[in-house]
Design goal:
about 200 residues; mainly beta; four-stranded antiparallel sheet; 1 helix; disordered N terminus
Length: about 200
């Protein structure tokens, strides 16, 4: 189902601007909150200090809907591209500093959930100098008109052979914390522009 949805999305809307909650296209470098499109599915996206207890290393989600969470910026893979487009590779970075002294760019990790084999999303730069694909995600619109995040970075590495059948970004709950992970059901999301007072 994920493959057919992605293929349909790629054919029907690839290259269409991704819209925020006010109907405006997402812009490179502008801050946005990512939150579930359905309010009963937790709160805004944030950093979680899930396993190491000191460094907020994991990308996760607030447990409740509300004003907490951190904004992110988007950087399209294509140089000079200023508008975030559906089905195109983008880098997502939290617009905050951490005590971890490292990049806050999202990265697909090989680390998995404690009771599942779902790959977690963490922060940091992909250290593969030739094809740093771990930092690139996509935003796709599903048949119901809602957006989902997806990992399948063909623009970052057109010669790589990725198995993209189950690489939707969803939630994995461990020890009461909501972590973002691949290899499960997609979490429909929306993008709210961060207004700085």
């Amino acid at each position: 189902m994920a493959i057919s949805t992605l293929a349909q999305t790629s054919n029907d809307t690839a290259g269409s601007p991704v819209l925020d909650t006010t109907g405006q296209p997402l812009q490179r470098g502008v801050e946005y909150y990512i939150k579930p499109a359905i309010t009963e599915n937790g709160g805004r996206f944030t950093l979680i200090d899930h396993r190491n207890g000191t460094c907020p290393f994991y990308v996760g989600q607030e447990n409740l809907s509300g004003p907490d969470g951190f904004p992110v910026t988007f950087a399209p893979f294509a140089e000079g591209e200023t508008v975030v487009k559906e089905g195109r590779d983008i880098k997502i970075t939290f617009a905050v500093s951490t005590i971890c002294v490292q990049s806050t760019a999202w990265k697909r990790s090989n680390e998995t959930g404690q009771e599942t084999e779902r790959r977690l999303i963490v922060i940091g730069e992909d250290e593969n100098e030739r094809y740093p694909t771990g930092n690139y995600f996509k935003i796709v619109r599903e048949g119901n008109g809602l957006y989902s995040l997806f990992w399948c970075p063909y623009e970052a590495c057109p010669i790589c052979k990725f198995d993209c059948r189950a690489t939707w970004v969803g939630v994995l709950v461990e020890n009461g914390k909501r972590l973002l992970a691949l290899d499960g059901s997609a979490l429909p999301v929306e993008f709210e522009r961060h207004i700085i007072d």
